[in-house]
Amino acid sequence: MEKIFFVAGLLLPWVWAALLALVPRKVDEHARDLALFGAVLAALLLTASFVLSGASASTETVLHLSWVPEIGLDLVVVRDGLAESFALLIAWISVLVTVYSRSYLPHANHEEGSKRSEASFYALMSGFSAAMLALVFSGNLLQFYLFWELTGIASYLLIGYWNHQKEARAGALLALWQTVAGGVAMLVGFFWIGTQTGLWSIAAIMDQAATLQGKSWLPYCAAFVCIGALAKSSQFPFMGWLPAAMNAPTPVSAFLHSSALVAAGIFLLARFYPLFHSTGAWWWFLVLPGAIGAVYGGFLAFRQGKMKPLLAYSTISQYAFMFIGFGLGSKSAAEAALFAFFVHALIKAGLFMTAGSVTHITGDKELEEVGGLRRSNLAFAIVGIALGLALAGIPGLGKFYYEEELLKSVIKGGHSLLVYLVLLAGGMLSLMYMLRFLSQIFFGRPKKEDPHPVPAPMALPMGILAGAAILVSLFPGPSSSLLNPALESMLQSRVHFKVHLEINAIFWTSSASLALGAVLWWVLRRFGRGTGAGSFLPESFSIGGVQAALGYRAASRFFLSLHSGYLPSYLRFNCVCFLALTALLWVHCDLGFRTPSAPLDPGLASTLFLTAATAAATLFVRRHLTFVLLLTMAGFAVSGAFVLLGAPNVALAQVLVETLIDLSIIIALRETLLVDPDETLVFPDRKPDPGRWVVAIGIGAVIGLGTYWAAENYPFESVGQWYASEAHRQSGMEDFVSAILTDFRALDTLVEILVFTTGVVGVIGLYWHEEVSGE
To answer: What is the pLDDT of residue 339?
Structure first.
């Protein structure tokens, strides 16, 4: 029964995403109910499955389907303590975010001037949840990568949900390309592992982790995998995309940017920890970027003037703590890092909701424009302050425990004092920016007259998350012990992890750093000048120096100079390169030239002459319609040549393609009837252009001579003969052209259809989407 619940809970978000995508715009209020029902049902099914099966660290294969065995791509669904813990967090925070969105989204869409359907938002959220669940339960390297990138695509659509805003689209694109770049690096590492070991099953690779230690190629694989994790979790040097994504709706930030999308990087590190933790590359690619992110991210968080960017840089800084924990390579540090992830996810989701609620009731996003909300919204203030203090690291509250565990692991493992100081500095900055966040929102003089209370559907999820953070603080031992199955799956050994408060030297040094942070915050707040406290600090992250070192700007100028926007110049460039490469190949390979011995066929010669004549006639017409008709005649003449060569099926395909394309062009030309006729000329002027003639004649001569030469001089056996002999035996088809398109090269055909469809959808969007019509 538990397997039925598990499979149903795993598939339900996919089904719900499809259903929500079909909900008409007019009934968005029903989409809210449907989305909430689906999220709750999926979370209950997964919870029931895990409870019935019992918390276990052992790996269980639920489904194994052979997909593309030639490249090791199987569809494998596995469950263990690590995957189950992440799945429960994703599922239940998805429920809370959906509850929050029911009140937040209608008002936010109105305030932001968006005409987007709420159903599309919930469909994307459900699709993202489905991709994340599929990712954590993936048991194959290539399958893991596929869902890894699918989460990136879904996040791109969610970040750019308010697509009428240029900043939202830019942030979505930045997030997409940086995470995809990291994903490609991760894929290189995966292929390296798979080709070296011959294994594509993650469980099988982890079983061989001990025997693979010391392999010369393992550090390089670790480096590539770490790059993927750094990009996904927005760590240095990929810190730019997460703050840029803060133009997304608050529910997106509360889900993706605290406990889901950026969490994929942590899950990647935890999943492959047994394989890589002892390599030197693991330390350098995690601890060094983590140290930079913990301190620099904390500085930038303190410097922000807006609520959500402050929380974004805070997320970068807190995730850097976790990367340091994993990078240290010791068992205690990895335990502390995973514990930090779960505690932080609860707190940060609630803080993002707090920021969104402040904007909801005041209409402001700047910290300087709000204040004194504790007087009009006391219950909301209590919840927000509890969440903020839990992240500030106050002794006895949320973050304090995982920072203490990380500090203990540094001392216990004999690691560098510099790492210890970085963690203390990061903790001090956490207190500073959270004090700034809380003081400017809830304290001081009210800057808005009588803001209305936070709606109950928005306050309830925040209260639940704050309550969970408080429970972790009051009962750290039992709370941390719930992670034992996840820790055992990660470490592949028995674990008895339990957090408790100790009054020792680490406690006093940590408390001293917090006290110093409080004093610095007060001084900067009291005596700071400019736009706010700490105005001397930079406001955003930029890797301009790195870009300059890599020649990024020079390369950009070079490629922009090539993209003049003038199509003939592109054609000339391509044609000249083609001629040069052809000449180089001819000389280098010494291909020779023999005259074909076959007699000239008068019928074939006539059709080819007609083709050439109609093509040449296009040079002397000035109207597009005449131009299209001449090209159609040339295409039909080529079809006649295919008939004479004994390929009537190819001829028929040529006729159909020519007819469809030419009709499409003619229909499109109808839309230009209201345009100045001079703008529809093929050649708008009669100025001589010798370069065009030279390139055109050169290309024609090379292709003609090449075809003539190939009839007698082709040095290899024709692949067409193999297709002709194998088509019927391997595909059962008599027509080997159909066999090629639908069997031998079926994937090529599918990609061509996908590319064409994507282009059509893009063009339709440009014509029909009114929200971006002004650009």
So the answer is: 87
Confidence of residue 292 (pLDDT cuts 50, 70, 90): very high
Point out the least confidently predicted range of 68-77, 628-637, 651-660: 68-77
Domain boundaries, the chain: 1-270, 277-535, 572-724, 725-775
The confidence band for 624, taking pLDDT boundaries of 50, 70 and 90, is confident
- Predicted model pTM: 0.77
Instruction: Give the pLDDT score at 555.
Output: 64
Q: 434 and 389 in contact (C-beta within 8 Å)? A: yes
pLDDT of residue 122 exceeding 80, the answer is yes
Q: Where are the beta strands (DSSP E) in 57-178?
A: 60-68, 73-79
> Cα dist. 288→65, 325, 414, 466, 723 in Å?
40, 11, 17, 32, 55
Q: Which two tokens stand for residue 2?
A: 């538990």
- pLDDT (0 to 100) of residue 184: 93
Q: How many CB atoms lie within 10 A of CB 186?
A: 28
* Rg of the chain in Å (alpha carbons): 31
Q: Is the peptide bond before 219 cis (omega within 30 degrees of 0)?
A: no
Phi, psi of 408 (to 5 degrees): -60, -40
DSSP conformation letters of 548-582: HHTTHHHHHHHHHHH--S-HHHHHHHHHHHHHHHH
The length of the chain, given as a count of residues? 775
Exposure class string for 721-753: b at 16+ Cβ within 10 A, else e: eebeeebeeebeeeebeebbeebbeeeeeeeee
Supply the DSSP string of 356-398, one letter for each residue.
HHHHHHH---BGGG---HHHH-HHHHHHHHHHHHHHHT-TTSH
pLDDT in tens, 294-351: 999 999 998 888 899 999 999 999 999 999 999 988 888 888 888 889 989 999 999 9
Joined tokens for residue 444: 């001081």
The span from the CA of 147 to the CA of 134, in Å, is 7
Tokens, residue 757: 């469809």
What is the DSSP secondary structure assignment for residue 594, as one 8-state letter? -
Residue 65 has φ and ψ, to the nearest 5°, of -120, 130
What's the whole-number average pLDDT of the chain?
A: 82
> What is the C-alpha to C-alpha distance for residues 507 and 501, in angstroms, rounded to an integer?
9
Residue 79 pairs with which residues in a beta bridge? 60
Confidence at residue 549, expressed as pLDDT on a 0 to 100 scale: 40
Q: Identify whether the C-beta of residue 159 lies closer than 8 Å to the C-beta of residue 172.
A: yes
Whole-angstrom CA distances from 727 to 383, 658, 716, 749 are 69, 27, 20, 17
**CATH class as words, domain 572-724:** mainly alpha
Q: Which whole number is the average pLDDT over 20-40?
A: 86
Q: What pLDDT is attached to residue 41?
A: 95
- Hey, CA dihedral for 528, 532, 534, 538, is it positive or negative? negative
Alpha carbons 385 and 451: distance in angstroms, whole number: 18
Distance (Å, rounded) from C-alpha 641 to C-alpha 647?
9
Residue 189 is predicted with a pLDDT of 94
Residue in 118, 98, 121, 101 with CA at minimum distance from that of residue 39: 98
What DSSP state is assigned to residue 451? Answer: P
**Computed from CA positions of residues 241, 247, 250, 252, in that sequence, does the dihedral angle turn out positive or negative?**
negative
Report the SS3 class of residue 79.
strand
In tens, the pLDDT along 135-150 reads: 999 989 989 999 999 9
- Taking only the tens place, the pLDDT of each residue in 692-708 is 777 777 777 777 777 77
Q: Given this model, what pLDDT does residue 545 score?
A: 38
Query: What are phi and psi for residue 331, nearest 5 degrees?
Result: -60, -45
What six digits make up the tokens of 479?
């709370």
CB-CB contact of 362 with 370 (8 Å):
yes
Q: At what angle do helices 81-112 and 456-474 cross, to 10 degrees?
A: 150
Which DSSP state fits 774?
A: T
Residue 132: pLDDT band by 50, 70, 90 thresholds?
A: very high
**Tokens linked to 451:** 């803001």
